[in-house]
Amino acid sequence: xxxxVTGGAGFIGANFVRSTRRERxxxxxxxxxxxxxxxxxxxxxxLDEGVxxxxxxxxxxxxxxxxxxxxxxxxHFAAETHVDNALADPEPFLRSNxxxxxxxxxxxxxxxVRLHHISTDEVYGELALDDxxxxxxxxxxxxxxxxxxxxxxxxxxxxxxxxxxGVAATISNCxxxxxxxxxxxxxxxxxxxxxxxxxxxxxxxxGANVRDWIHVAxxxxxxxxxxEDGTLGRTYLxxxxxxxxxxxxxxxxLREMDRDPDDFDHVSDRAGHDLRxxxxxxxxxxxxxxxxxxSDFAEGLRKTIEWYRDxxxxxxxxxxxxxxxxxxxGQ
Length: 331
Prior knowledge:
- With about 325 residues, the chain is α/β, with parallel strands linked by helices.
- It has helices at about 10-25, 60-70, 85-90, 90-110, 145-165, 185-195, 215-230, 245-255, 280-290, 295-310, 310-330; strands at about 1-5, 30-35, 50-55, 75, 115-120, 170-175, 175-180, 200-205, 210-215, 235-240, 245, 265.
């Protein structure tokens, strides 16, 4: 298989490329990435053999068409993803997430190439903290932030191209990923690297907001199951039954790093901060026989902490700039 991976130098995309190279060495990989602040060549270090890396914009019509023409399938990770950045400046999110997805769709339509589109559970909005329900593929879209609104728009474009033009595509909406190579602006690596650099961790508001955590390796294994055996036109929800509120996650990190679990600062809450996400992965498990392997969240956190402790050279140059931007926002 010749596989084009957009956004393959970002957090989830780089992990996908690495696991694919390790577990499916017969797959020929081309990575398209614009290498914005969130894309890192170091995340792909050591993968030169069998991996072609193209520095380019996912909205570049000619380039995307050329790369798609040489592929058997496309996995579309490329996106701006950080909610705080979207609140400060939504324009890059519209360009990358909406126009970028449109560009990919037109290329796969023209060349008859299979597409898998990566999305998020945030398109469904929020659930109440005391609501036992979980998101399903039939849940109504109700995005709360500029980021989730652009991802919802991208999802709808994919669905429309499937119905209107017969594009061979699937969609997956995943819960919150964690693991190695995640940018230090995100919640879990920010707290870990704050401790490692002698800073006090930060917690939005009361910390009661619940996220449904999944290890990035489990997410990417599910993506491969969908690519191989998923029903074209379907949306699959990827989750690992990992619901924890932010306060609990932060205290778990602090205990694992031998710090007082109350050794953190509360900061002003994010605007429009969704209360709770929860994914029902039942259809994915039943139809495609997928199950998460990293179901012990505490163990996953321990290994993630070890990775950041052992890879300061990867995240260290990013840290001061990230914290300066948070300080400007009072967070």
